[in-house]
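WP5 quarterly update. Target: SpoVR family protein. Source organism: Haloarcula salinisoli. Length: 677 aa.
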Amino acid sequence: MNDDRFRKQRIADDLEEPVNEASNLAERLGLTPYPVNYWVVDYDEMNELIAYGGFQKRYPHWRWGMQYDRQQKQGQFLGGKAFEIVNNDDPSHAFLQESNTLADQKAVITHVEAHADFFANNEWFGLFSDGAPPRAAGSEDDGRGPDAAGMLARHADTIREYMQDPDIDRSEVERFIDHVLCLEDNIDQHQPYRPVETARDRLAEIEGVDVTDQLDELDLSEEVKRQVFDDDWLEAQSDEDNGATFPSQPEKDVLGFIRKHGMAYDEDAEKAVEMTDWQKDILELLRREAYYFAPQKMTKVMNEGWAAYWESLMMTGERFAGDDEFILYSDHMAQVLGSPGLNPYKLGLEIWEYVENTENRREVVERLLRTEGVTWRTFHDVVDFTEVQDHLEPPAWLQNVAGHIDELDPEDPRIDAEGLIGARDGEFDVANYPWKVLTYEGLAQRHYSLVKPQYRGFVSRVGQAELERVSRYMFDDSRYDSVEDALADVEYTRGWDRMREIRESHNDVTFLDEFLTQEFVDDNDYFTYEYTHASGDYRVTSTDHEDVKKKLMLSFTNFGKPTVVVQDGNYRNRNELLLAHQYNGIMLDRKQATEVLKRVFELWGRPVNLLTIVKEFDDHDIEVAKRRDREPEPEEVGKRLRYDGEEVTVEDVPWSDVEHLAATDIDYNTKPDEWLA
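Structure tokens (predicted):
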């Protein structure tokens, strides 16, 4: 054990300089991450952390063992390799696998710094921080970011105590957790987390009245209290609802609604009874965890693409990977970007690069359109794009700082005067750390995207429609005498500045919605494919960006899961729960839906219903379609599934009952109303 600890200490000592310098470089590039604590772990420990979602302590449950086993098998049989794991915490905690090469560790460290920046600055992560309790009342940490490690550890201790309580059956606790977890994505991820406040809680706060104490003073039996003065009665005492529909609007936070109104089913008594304290407590703890992890699911593409972008810039653009590490790092990045399927690293990186390029192009185009003799109509005829590229090229000293160290002007805004003095005094090797001599402005020009070989034709490809649009909305009408004068005023930081603005406010859905254009789809060869009844296989169906966008939206709206809301908590005036599937063209899996209904019944204590829409195909139409090589037209019909504790029934319902659930188009606009201004 001691030898193992000393070996990890030696590895940690070797990583001290890369950790410090990566943090310094990230700050120089304009990133503002949470502080990061790095931990060196072995292979098994890394698998445990991945299984636990990046944390060292979670509540007892079989799901963690299953995830650990899956992770191990992936490494043993599928060639998967765990490079890193980092959590959204302040400070963040990142775990480095000791068997990785130094090149891999450097890549992980730069990747982690970018993740920590995203955690600290993206508003969707702020939703949880705003609603979370402080770290410790009155402590100096109040007001900082989340203390998720502490929160999850406290949850683990609470649930473990319930499992160890001799008056509580451990298997019942495990079953209850299973029931809750089937709904962990059915929250309102666009709202900040708030603990559920029941009617009993609200009335207790009115003028300091404690309803429980008042009921105790009546000296009533527990049976009477449960049956007469239950939550329904307490709800009626509140004037909030005023007889409105229950709920008045569809409720997205299904877990919260069940925490507030749900009951347990007593098999012996064959009726619904109030949940026990431990059930209510565990339900709320798991709901809080669902809200904590929601932003990570909502920003997977953005977050991983953001980290991949800055990792690549630091490792290759600033040569954070040494000459002897460059090949290993290239292999590392190829593995990450080459993963099959819908790869969030690759998609995210490509969109971030596109955002940078389009913003930089707009800046250049705006300058050129203010040049004498250049209009949006004549742009492609009169502009010499080779001349444009020559003027945008960074000066020789920016491309080779070490070779021109004695020529640099400390008054130049692109030069860090203190760093220049340090370099000239030999305080650091400027060949290894040229960025220490440069400011944010200098680094932005040094890495200007439009002069990179793969993007040298990006300005010339600007379309007439965009030229007209830019020309129409330019506010500065001053003119330049020449292209050289115009490009001398280019703001090289504009692309990075715009990227940071987007990083603050968007999630994956809005990110794809706004920036997945036809130009992007064409440049990166994206397309859609569908299963066809005519051929019985999958075929490419479209390269139109709207079709590609809609297809991707289905993978990201509500974490790619069906959106199910509470439509009625007193369906048909029988205390039954009516859930509604917000149909977007994709049918529910009937088998999974049935199993979920059975679990929701255990949390509601009374029959549970689910409204949905299904597509039905006529056999004759399918045969005709095969002969004519075209797709049959399905009929969409309404269905209601119901589980009463014994059996599941399915019945057709009138279209008028489900018409409000059918989207006229793919419904992926999930921006909060207040952010649309």
